[in-house]
Amino acid sequence: MGKSKLETLTVSDPQLLNPHDAIIKVTRTAICGSDLHLYDGFIPTMESGDILGHEFMGIVEEVGKEVTNLRRGDRVVVPFTIACGNCFFCKKKIWAACDNSNPNAHLMEAAYGYSGSGLFGYSHMMGGYAGGQAQYARIPFANVGPLKIESDLPDEKVLFLSDIFPTGYMAAENAQIQPGDTVAVWGCGPVGQFAMASAFMLGAARVIAIDRLPERLEMARSLGAITVDYSEEDVSVLTALKDLTGGIGPDACIDAVGLEAHSAQLQGTYDKIKVALMMETDRPSVLRQAIQAVRKGGTLSVPGVYGGLLDKVPFGAAFGKGITMKMGQTNMHNYMKPLLERIEKGQIDPSYIISHRITLEQAPAMYEVWRDKKENVTKIVIDPWAEAAS
Ligand SMILES: [Zn+2]
Ligand SMILES: [Zn+2]
Q1: Which ligand gives the minimal distance to the CA of 118?
Q2: Closest CA to 130 of 5, 33, 9
Q3: How does pLDDT run across 204-237, given as a tens digit for each residue?
Q4: pTM for the complete prediction?
Q5: Among positive and negative, which fits the CA dihedral 107, 111, 115, 120?
Q6: Ligand 2 centroid – CA 385 distance (Å)
Q7: Dist. CA 78–CA 148, nearest whole Å
Q8: How many angstroms separate the alpha carbon of residue 235 from the centre of ligand 1?
Q9: Residue 384 near residue 360 (C-beta atoms within 8 A)
């Protein structure tokens, strides 16, 4: 309803608009770190009345006549990126670059050259699709995206296949980890957690976790990571990473923070002022640090969201050290099924990150808690059918 202003309202139910659509009854949804970029007004083209939410799952209620993969009653997890399955990019399995799913692509082209795929609940420039923090949602290209859950695993164990588990996994894959590598991860929120767990799965010998919130650092230690609390007065992240790697630097660095980085240093203040003056759109202090920290010939993977123009990024250091940089929205469709299999085999239970279970009525207040990292919050899951007064 405006910057930092949310309401829970009754709206009309979504309708099938296209024969390839499905309507699902949402059984669980979650609030993502990247929802905060919308909440805080960093992403343009939001309108009053837009429905947020791109992490959701549910039961198929209705399908259009061209939908052959799904039937009423199927239980599905929906990927946050919308892909047609038939364009040049979908055929190359670069699903997050789908050329057919963003009807407002022209809004992106001026700034980006080309548009990425449409996204649920993520502004009009990303397609203006209603999100899943609701009781029902319309799913376009329903033959392509939704992953059927045929086992009786509870919602909470599979919900995060909608975004953050695949996103963390792709971040680790993009880090090009070799057995024995040391991987440093900035940001121990949900994506950082899954990036660390995935780094170990892909053969990392050591993972170094960087954050300032005790509950997140504790979670990182529970995965086996070494932690660096950058808010401690005498801690320099760069020195700590050098000390932990014999002066060489981590083989791979993962920026799981993105455009609203918090920084205890002078550059944090600098970025806040430049953003306020609209001379910069993003606060890239983690990106700067990760470029500096990574070893020569190492890899930088960026799952954290960036939106626009960044200032004082040490590109010379990136060039001078010959690093590889990989980034972008997650190509969800490549990861959902293999990661579901890992959950089914008991290799990981993604629900360990959940700290809060709430109703839709509680969501507006909980966005504030999430933004300000109060109440030891680590991940908020919403049951859209739960009664308000619980
Ligand atoms: Zn998300
Ligand atoms: Zn496509």
Answers
A1: 2
A2: 9
A3: 999 999 999 999 999 999 999 999 999 887 779 9
A4: 0.94
A5: negative
A6: 33
A7: 9
A8: 30
A9: yes
